[in-house]
Amino acid sequence: MEGKLVRKAIITDAGFASRYLPITKTVPKAMLPMGNRPIMQFVIEECVEAGIEEIIIVATPEGKPIYEDYFNNNVNRIRKQLAAQGKEDRYEPVQHVLDYPKITVITQDPSLPYGNGSPVVSAKAFVEGEQAFLVIYSDDIVFGQPGDAKTMVAAYEADPTVDGVIMSQEVDPGVVDKYGIISFRAGSDNLLDNIIEKPDLGTAPSNLASYGRYLLTPAVFEHLVASNSGKDGELWTVDAITAIAKTGRVLVERTQGEWMTTGDPENYFRAHLKFVVEQEKYGKKVKEWLATMGEE
Q1: Domain that holds residue 265
Q2: 15-24, 161-170, 225-234 — which is least confidently predicted?
Q3: What is the three-class DSSP state of 73?
């Protein structure tokens, strides 16, 4: 394929998000805020930084119209009102969203089994002709630059003969039992052999945790099929990646930012608090507010 080697990204937010109920019965999990922007916008901007030209969001049926509205509705009545009040600058963040590359929102194929691989399969038709594409789980957020999307694209452009690229981050040895941990191919420090899910403490092959940032080729769909469901009868993207690693070459890159999960309310709050304290104008005040609360 001529031109860019990696042009498209699949971003998934098609789960029940049951740990967040009742809010997620109405609001998609990745539409929860980080400051005045939703989590999904941070993930989109990570793709924009990497030069991605088209983004496919896989959402729930309830979430699809919400995403379509957020990324496409120009709220012209609000723009006109702001202009009449001389506050056009307040519309600039909206225009920023509208200027993103093409965003297509689809729903997950209901015939597929539950699992994080099913949203990827649901977007298969959008990426089949691509040389490679990104798969991003929207409940994983990466702070800092370059973002993981750019790191993966750069790694693939440097060696487009690899069969995939996945991201990792070092975690404390005392918590490796909470993550999927990278095992390297013998004699290598950057080629994947396997991902060991939640290994017992003291048995982990490394301290590198894998999370939802992958660069894959359409060959993944040979393994990512409903009949290959794994643990708990679910369809797992990691199972397909490790199957590819058995005979192919899957690169493991270390994040140059900081990965945090928003997959549950506690970790979401930690990530949101970090963002507000470090990047919002009122961040310093938050520390003062927290100190005041501690005195009560």
Answers
A1: 6-279
A2: 225-234
A3: coil
